[in-house]
Structures are given as C-alpha cells and as structure tokens.
Amino acid sequence: GEDVEQSLFLSVREGDSSVINCTYTDSSSTYLYWYKQEPGAGLQLLTYIFSNMDMKQDQRLTVLLNKKDKHLSLRIADTQTGDSAIYFCAADTGRRALTFGSGTRLQVQP
Amino acid sequence: ETGVTQTPRHLVMGMTNKKSLKCEQHLGHNAMYWYKQSAKKPLELMFVYSLEERVENNSVPSRFSPECPNSSHLFLHLHTLQPEDSALYLCASSQDGTGGTDTQYFGPGTRLTVL
To answer: Which residue of B has its CA nearest to A3?
Structure first.
C-alpha cells in the first residue's frame, strides 16, 4: 500500500520561507494534498495538486511536485507566527480515502 | 469555518464503559469518514460511509461500531476499549466519497482517553 513520509519538525524565523517536504511510494496517486492542523482543531485543507502538474501557487503557498522522485513540497513564503501548526501531506490512493504522513510540526520564532 | 461538528470534544472512559461519539455535517455532503489520530502513528482511516452505506472498513476491531442513520450524522459506538485506543478521533465529510477533488472537510475531533 501507499506509504507517505515527512520530517517531524521544522523551525523557522518569522518572515523567512518555510519548506516542508514529503515523499510517497505509490506512483499511481493522482492527487496530493496539504492539510494544516492547529492545536485542538481538526485538519484544514490548504491546497492540493494533480499529478500531471509540477507546480501550483496559491498566495503565499507554493506546491512543487517531482513525480519521478515521488517528492512533494510545500513552501510558505513570509512565514508568520500564525502559521505555526502541524502540516500533513496526504495522497489519494483511489480508495475513497487518503493516506496521510505523520505530520511536520512547524514552529515559527518571532 | 468548519461545517463538521463533533461531540463530545473530550471523553474519558473506563475499559468496561459504553459510550458514543457523534459527528454532524451541515454541508449537504453524501460521504462521511472516521479517522483515528494517535501520537505514534499517522492518521488512520477507520470507516467510510457513502449515502449511508458503509463502503470501507479498514480492519477495525469490533469494539468500534459505526452507525450512519442519515447523510448528516455519523456515530462511533465504543465498548470494552483498551488503553491503546486512546487517541483523537476525527470525523470528515465530502461530497460523494470518490476521492480526487472530492475534498474532505474535517471536524475538530474528540479526544478520547481510556483508563
């Protein structure tokens, strides 16, 4: 089955760019997602990318997809303290469900 | 603002208790999901319902029993749980449960502690 992996922790300074990385194993995944989870809250969909795209930009968020290496990244420009959260990468396995990574905790220092 | 609500937000129960988690979606969706989020594992899918019919059961122990009486409500009935079942239980809904661009919207979760 699909396996999705992420690094566990990232710390950046306010105003810097953050890059969160993710790798997946199932090359047939058609959609890849980034979710954000703030303390005490559920998951909020940030963005997703279709597998035939290399890049998608949405305001401060840029998603890069390297399908050959099965590598996905989320870049947050001008990171703010409000961006501190856990970020989950997820892959659509076509089974009506998503396979999630373990999440990357982003800490933004003032 | 999330259109998926879950109650209770926190629950503490003994191993011999019976309790139920409730999820309600106000988005007019046809599919609903239960996920388990524990400290040591990635988010795990438990059950999927589409048009009130269970379409996915991800090898979940029988001490977890889902119920979907209509497309807006989803329950998870709990009985004789184990301490390792302590986790955050997340409910989600989507338009039709087909994946792809069928975006899943999550509730805030119920934090369950089994003593």
So the answer is: B42
Q: Kindly give, in sequence order, each residue whose CB lies less than 8 Å from that of residue A30, ignoring residues fewer than 6 positions away.
A: A50, A51, A92, A94, B100
Q: What is the pLDDT of residues A28-63, one digit of tens each?
A: 888 899 999 998 788 898 999 988 889 999 999 999
A34 CB within 8 Å of a chain B CB: no
d(CA B13, CA B46): 20
Element holding A45 (H helix, E strand): strand A43-50
Count of CB atoms within 10 A of residue B6's CB? 22
Q: Residue A96 — pLDDT band, cuts 50, 70, 90?
A: low
> Residue B89 and residue B87: Cα distance in Å, rounded?
6
**A11-33: per-residue pLDDT in tens?**
999 999 999 999 999 888 888 99
Kindly determine whether residue A4 and residue B42, on different chains, have CB atoms separated by under 8 Å: yes
